[in-house]
Design brief:
This protein is α/β, with parallel strands linked by helices and 379 residues long. It is 37% helix and 18% strand. Strands 1, 2, 3, 4, 5, 8, 9, 10, 11, 12 and 13 form an 11-stranded mixed sheet that branches. The chain has a two-stranded antiparallel ribbon with strand order 6-7.
Length: 379
Amino acid sequence: MRNPVPIEQIELAELVGMPGVRGFWDRQGVNQLFQRDIINSIRDEPHDLFRYDADGLPSYSGLAISGGGSSGAFGAGILCVWSSTDTRPQFKLVTGISTGALIAPYAFLGQAYDAKLKAVFTTISTKNIVRLSRRIPFRIDSLTDTSPLAKLIAKDVNEAMIVDIAAAHAQGQRLYIGTTNLDAQRFVVWNMGAIAASNDPAALDLFRNVMLASASIPGAFSPVYIDVVAGGQIYDEMHVDGGVFTQVFFYEFMLDIRAAVEATGANEGERSSGAVYVIRNGKAGPEPEQTPREILAIAQRAISTMIKSASLNDLLRIYQLTRRDQIDFNYADIPEDFQFKSQEVFDREEMIALFDLGYQMVSEGRAWQKAPFESSQVE
């Protein structure tokens, strides 16, 4: 049985012992919680952590990682080889959704965690992620049991990783992961570094649960129920895949980095330079296939088409944002001529092929596009 937050108190609900580590993102303007957080991050950063341009102004780099299920192996491949090229930036901000949320902590921590990231996406199969649910039909919240995925997350997301994330947070880097609060019908951004740095005994479990929730496809995977307090009473929130709301996100409609830099006096009102890197773990273009005349096949095809359409809108939004703010835009996706062959949800061999593809594209200097939908072909 659930004990959901009363509708009139949804806005007031806070985590027990850790207030201020998450907030709603509603496309309604800057979230003041995150605006304060990014201002504090600029004040906390050591002078030599990020690159500065010729005028002595900070030049920040950000990374946004999309959803895409097992295709996250593509993004993992990009990140792992990127370190060896000596061109991978020190990221000021890393965001992740769904499979991107599973990648984001490794990407945030950099080269020291590349080997573990590679193992996550090249040594597993479906049995390491889900198993069919044994609960009573029609009284279940999903078709599968995601305890294998929870165990996989717990293997690497341990006390040592939390300490490393807290240390990066203390020097001004930020890691944000998105989930969807189904009761509120709103997107929630979690400040993962603040959770890691909270010293709360529940921080490690919450960190893992947020990652699990962001990757929990509704219906297929179980929602994650997170305890909160509202009006002095304990309730639960139902959180699922952040991809329900958006396929990739960055700082737009949540915080204003330019205003934050100006608020700290770091550049005396001048505009700082920077770069944004977006990894889409999927194909941007259409993927034609014949749809059977069956209700489930039609529904699945319609949903996948809606997701693709939403992801393209998300990408265009970020691109327009970078143009407005004069930020260098860099985008990578799976080339259109890569052939998906497996019918298994998480096929190890196909994931290895995707990892190798991302690795190869960076090695050959052809991973990053400067505008959405530039043609990209496997060679």
